[in-house]
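Vesicle amine transport 1-like
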Amino acid sequence: MVRQGNIDNPPKTPLVPGFECCGIVESVAENTQGFEIGDRVMAFMNYNAWAEVVCTPVDFVYKMPDDMTFTEAAAFSLNFVAAYMMLFEVASLQEGMSVLVHSAGGAVGQAVAQLCSTVPNVTVFGIASCFKHTSIKDSVTHLFDRNADYIQEVKKISPDGVDIVLDCLCGENTGKSLSLLKPLGTYILYGASNMVTGETKSFFSFAKSWWQVEKVNPIKLYEENKVIAGFSLLNLLFKQGGCNLVKSAMDKLLSLYEQKKIRPVVDSLWALEEVKEAMQRIHDRGNIGKLILDVEKSPTPLMANDSTETSEAGEEEEEPEGDNDSKERMPFIH
C-alpha cells in the first residue's frame, strides 16, 4: 500500500521503506540509557528499516530475549503488538469468547491465533485462501475458504455470531463481518488490502472497495449493541504518542515468548537485492506468515527453515480467483 501510495499523505520518493527491524547496537546517543553497544535489539521505524544501518529513537527499541533469533525478532514486533492490542486493549478478549480473523494465513492472522490460544476456551474462526489451509489448519478452531459463503458456515457453528471480528481487507467484507457480530461484539478494521489489486495504484480498485463498504447507521449500532473500531499501530506509535502503551504490550508479549506460548511465523528469507521478488510474493498472496529481508543473505531463494538467523514483511491480502495450486510456495515453519 505504501508502494502504491494507497495511504494518507504518502511520503515523497526517493524513499527507503520498512517499519521494523532487528540487529546489533552500533552506537548510542549521549545520555541514552538502557542500551549499550553490542546489544541485540528489535525496533520500530517510521520508514527506513530496509537498510544495513538504521537510526531510531530509543523509545522504539527493545532488547531481544537471549534465545530469540534475528529471524524471529525481525518478524515479531509489528504483528504481535498489533494483534495483542486489538484483542486485549480494544476488544477486551476474555475466556469463552469467539474471534473471526480474516487473512488467517498472514503474519498478523497467525499472531492472533497464537494469542487466542493463551486464553481458555476461545474459539477462532479463520478465513484464508484454500491453498493455505493445510499449513494453518492446526492454528485455528475452524477454517473457511475466503471465496466460499463463510457467513453461513460460521452461523451453522455459532448461530448467535462471534464476539470479535478482525478485518484487514475492508470492502464487501465489512458488511459481512458486521452481520456476524453478537450484541456487544467488536468489529476492528486494521487494513484495507482489497484496495491493492494491480501493479500500480488503481482509482477503480479504491473506489470499488470504498463503494462496497456498507454504510454504517449509528442508530442501528445503538439498537444492536455493536462496536466498530479502527486500529493503526503505526499511527499510534508515530503520530499519536502511544509509545508507553506499545511498551506495555511488548513487555507482556516478550514474557509470553519466553514462556514459549507464542512464536512468530516466518514464510521465507530474502536478500536485500531480492526485494522485488519478495514484494511480488506478497502481492501474489503467496505468503504464510512474514517475509524477512536478511542483510547477510546472498541472493537466491533460501527456505526459512534452512536458517536460524535474520526485516520487514507483508500481510496476506485478497486472493484472486483462479487456480492457486500452481503457485510456488515455501514451507510453513512449525
